[in-house]
Design brief:
The complex is a heterodimer of chains A (114) and B (114). With 114 residues, chain A is mostly beta strands. Chain A is built from no helices and eleven strands. Chain B is mainly beta. The chains are: A mainly beta (114), B mainly beta (114).
Chain lengths: 114, 114
């Protein structure tokens, strides 16, 4: 069966510090990968998605970047965090080539920028 | 552009009572529709999905949803709520070419009274 791992679960970082959140998927090949952000009391906002190694699409301009160095690894990064980067970050995957494949989410990372 | 509205921010029901969570969507063609559930501090889990065919779809945990094209709605229902159903519920609409790029509603928080 497929599993998705996301870490760390919680993170407190000072303003201006770098960020690296990692997500890996097991049990499937060539998945579509996504980073979503969830603000308190709000829905999910798609930040990045990837349909293959090295292929990253950004949905919103921001202080963050994403990379996919391996087929089942997706990394969310920042060189200098802002207060507004605080939130709950969710990694997800879906089946490549299946337009109606739903999302499968990790357990999320709670990021607090102080 | 696709959009989703969940009119109810918070709903409280008694255990054993019936439940209906509302979802209205905007999309130019036949949408892909999803309901997800999120427990506190966790990722989202798929409850059910609609792509085509029978407009009444069954999901996990005893939930069902009905697609009504004329009303642009996809309401979630459960005949008898259990205390463990307390969570946040998200409706999402997906694009046919990539359902992972779903647009999410802001969510409805369900509280279950004993």
């Amino acid at each position: 069966s497929q599993t998705i791992h996301q870490w760390p679960a919680t993170l407190v970082q000072p303003v201006g510090s770098p960020l690296s959140l990692e997500c890996t998927v097991e049990g499937t090949s060539n998945p579509n990968l996504y980073w979503y952000r969830q603000a308190a009391g709000r829905g999910l906002q798609l930040l990045f998605y990837s349909v293959g190694i090295g292929q990253i699409s950004s949905e919103v301009p921001q202080n963050l970047s994403a990379s996919r160095p391996q087929d089942r690894q997706f990394i969310l990064s920042s060189k200098k965090l802002l207060l507004s980067d605080s939130g709950f970050y969710l990694c997800a995957w879906s089946v490549w080539g299946v337009g109606n494949s739903p999302l499968h989410f990790g357990n999320g990372t709670r990021l607090t920028v102080t | 552009a696709q959009s989703v509205t969940q009119p109810d921010i918070h709903i409280t029901v008694s255990e054993g009572a019936s439940l209906e969570l509302r979802c209205n969507y905007s999309y130019g063609a036949t949408p892909y529709l999803f309901w997800y559930v999120q427990s506190p501090g966790q990722g989202l889990q798929l409850l059910l999905k609609y792509f085509s065919g029978d407009t009444l779809v069954q999901g996990i945990k005893g939930f069902e949803a009905e697609f009504k094209r004329s009303q642009s709605s996809f309401n979630l229902r459960k005949p008898s709520v259990h205390w463990s159903d307390a969570a946040e519920y998200f409706c999402a609409v997906g694009a046919p070419t990539n359902a992972g790029k779903s647009t999410f509603g802001d969510g409805t928080t369900l509280t279950v009274k004993p």
